[in-house]
User: Fold these one by one.
Assistant:
Number 1:
Amino acid sequence: MFYLVNLTIRDENTVYQTTVEEVARKAGIYSEKVSYNPILVIPGESKLFPKLMERILSSEEGERFELTLEPEEAYGNYDRSKVKVFSVKRLEKEGIHPHVGEVIYLDDQRGVIQSVNGGRVTVDFNHPLAGKRLIVECEVVKKIEDDLEKLKAIVADMFDVGIEEITARWVEDGKAEVQLPPKAYVLRDSYSRKIGSLSLIMRHLKGVKAVRFIEEFDIPKSDQKLTS
């Protein structure tokens, strides 16, 4: 069973993340760069908080619920040992010209620069929500059992589009044809997203033998120009 869910993560005062455009706009965190669609939850694959995952698996389609997570059930307690001090020279060797508030990636870790003083830079590698008691609002939009619908959900999630924007059909036994929307196949990393989709399909849809991705381009009229 696959699940499509809408999630909003907040505390008593602030909304931090949401998959719902209306909520994002109301909270003042809306971004045109974000795709607001339900996320795909696949048991054994999705990296959700265990308590949240357990609750989703026991929910019915259309059900809404609210869950409170203590820090240890979410992003962990704040760990002062994850606050590190580096020399400016060390960071500059990594191509980083530090300023306060900058998000950096060092040794495969995400950190935020807290201060820059006298050639020394303090970086906090804790998760931004570490130490916070969080409230998760969840809606189980859809439970998916059909293999073709699961295939569509995998591709839609991988390309950050709504499942309704993906068209798929069986062309013969075990072979599927998937039509992508134009905004999906013009992405620079379109190929790697296809590979990611196929990897999930191989692990979870054993009856699928092959997938053909269809990309259709409309030819503009003679008085129109192609845009890149």
Number 2:
Amino acid sequence: MKIKNIMFDLGGVIMTIDQPSAVKRFKEIGLEDAERRLDPYTQSGIFGDLEEGKITAEEFIRELSRLCHRRLTFDECKYAWRGYTKEVPLRNIKVLDKLKSMGYRLILISNTNPFMMSWGMSDGFSGDGRNIADFFDSLYMSFKMKMMKPNRKMFEEIISKESILPEETLFVDDGPANIEMGKNLGFKTFCPQNGEDWTKELLDALEALNAR
């Protein structure tokens, strides 16, 4: 069965993650134990509550301000979260354009939050004036869906809303637990390493899958 849809993760795939930079920035704004509180794949505590939509951006600012012992602003929190973003490589932008021109339906599934998406939905995302929505047919963000990968229900809701078949869909994610859930649901999967050039390998994988 040929691949018709490609479901992409954001951080660690489209965007290169820089965990040490995020830790450094959160420390800069006053979070002394940032290493303990931050995770490269799935957040917990108030960070997880934010990405799971359990608390709003305003509530997160209030809670983080309490931990930092001073009143923080939205822009300070955005600055700290943006530490996770090392770059959005041009090669990734080009391959998204190529895949769309080849007729694939592109879907984003991301554990993310309002601070990161205030950047992602801006014209500063790609470096050429486009925002993240310009590259995908549909966007599924954890804080809006109120659930995070690898929650099975998140995948099932996307399957239902998009009317897609997992066996016709390639799921691309750098998180092993997320990939395992994708496999369990019948998705074809591809698990690149954060920061590597996965573009040729992905195109080769699609060619091989479609040749079966």
